[in-house]
Amino acid sequence: MTCQICGAWLPVGAMFCGECGSSRSATVESRKRRDPRPNDTTIIARLPHKATIISVPIPALVPVPVRAVAAVTNVPPAASTLPSSATFVLTFSTGRKVSVQGSGLIGRKPLPQPDEIFDDLIRVADADRSVSKTHLEFGQHDGEFWVSDRVSGNGTVIRRPGETAEPLEPGRRYVLPRGTRVEIADHSFTVA
C-alpha cells in the first residue's frame, strides 16, 4: 500500500507514513483546511483610483462643564451642550425613505464597533449580498451631510448634482450636498 499524500510505500500494519507523517487513511481532500474567512460579499469590479478627494476633518468635541454653561448663559444645560443638527431624508432605490438627524451606519446588517455609538442603523435588504454587512457610515458636521465607506467589498460611488461619478476612498469623509446620489454596490439612495 502507498501513502495517498506523498506516494511513499507503507509497510503492512503501519498507521502513519514514515515520510510525511500522514495517517494511512488521510486523503488529499481530507488534508485541505476550511477557509476561516466568511464569504460575506461578492466583488463585482474594483473601482479605478481617483486622485481628487474631498475630505473634511472633524474636530474632537471638548465637553463643557454643565454648571459653568448654566451659570454664564442662563440657558438650560440640555439646550446649550447639544449641537443642533439638520434633518436629511435618504430615499433608497427600493422606494424606502428614512429621515436621519445624526450619525449612523448603512448595510445588510450594520454593527458598530464596541467603542462606537450611532443614532441610526439602517438595514438594506440585499439577497445577492452585494452590500457589505456594515457598508457605509454617515453623519453631520456644521449642518452638512457626509458619508464614509467602511472598507466595503464593492465600494461606494457618489454622484453630486452636475458632476461625474466619484468612487470613495475607504475611511475618508465626503461632504454631500442635497440631491447627491450614493451608490452602494447594487443599491443606491439620494440625499434630500
Based on the model shown, name its key terms.
five-stranded mixed sheet, phosphoprotein, SMAD_FHA_dom_sf, elongated, FHA domain-containing protein, Tumour Suppressor Smad4, 3 helices, 192 residues, 2 domains, mainly beta, 24% strand, six-stranded antiparallel sheet
Overview of the molecule:
- The protein is built from three helices and eleven strands.
- It is mainly beta.
- The protein has two domains: 1-32, no CATH class; 81-191, Tumour Suppressor Smad4, CATH 2.60.200.20.
- β5 and β6 form a beta hairpin.
- 19% of the residues are buried.
Topology overview:
Layout: H1 28-31, H2 66-73, H3 77-81, E1 88-92, E2 97-100, E3 104-107, E4 120-123, E5 136-141, E6 144-149, E7 156-159, E8 166-167, E9 174-176, E10 181-184, E11 187-191
Parallel strand pairs: 3-4
Antiparallel strand pairs: 1-2, 1-11, 3-5, 5-6, 6-9, 7-8, 7-10, 10-11
Summarize the structure.
The chain has 192 residues and is mostly beta strands. 9% of the residues lie in helices and 24% in strands.
